[in-house]
């Protein structure tokens, strides 16, 4: 079974970035906050599930590649 998650940056401060994410490119109903120093994320709604982990890992992977927090992206497996 395929798994797909889209994400986009919705807010940024000095210490964190908030991303909206979800299974559809146009509708991203959930949010996660990424601590830019520790590179740890947490779901705003408190629910840690596959979609959250997939978005968080892809955001960190893109940061590893470019040394910049991505504005948007997607992960497919």
Tell me the span between the first and last alpha carbons: 9 Å
Low-confidence stretches: none
Strand arrangement within the widest β-sheet reads: 4-3-2-1-5
User: How large is the count of helical segments?
Assistant: 1
Helix content bin: 10-25%
| Basic shape | globular
Keywords:
39% strand, single chain, 5 strands, five-stranded antiparallel sheet, globular, alpha+beta
What does this structure look like?
The protein is of the alpha+beta class. 22% of the residues lie in helices and 39% in strands. The chain contains 1 helix and 5 strands, in the order E-E-E-E-H-E. It has one helix at residues 50-66; strands at 4-12, 16-22, 30-35, 41-43, 72-76. Strands 4-3-2-1-5 form a 5-stranded antiparallel beta sheet, covered by helices on one side. A hairpin with a 3-residue loop joins strand 1 and strand 2 (16-22). The protein is globular. It starts with a strand and ends with a strand.
Concise description?
The protein is of the alpha+beta class and 77 residues long.
Strands, helices and their partners?
Layout lengths: L3 E9 L3 E7 L7 E6 L5 E3 L6 H17 L5 E5 L1
Antiparallel strand pairs: 1-2, 1-5, 2-3, 3-4
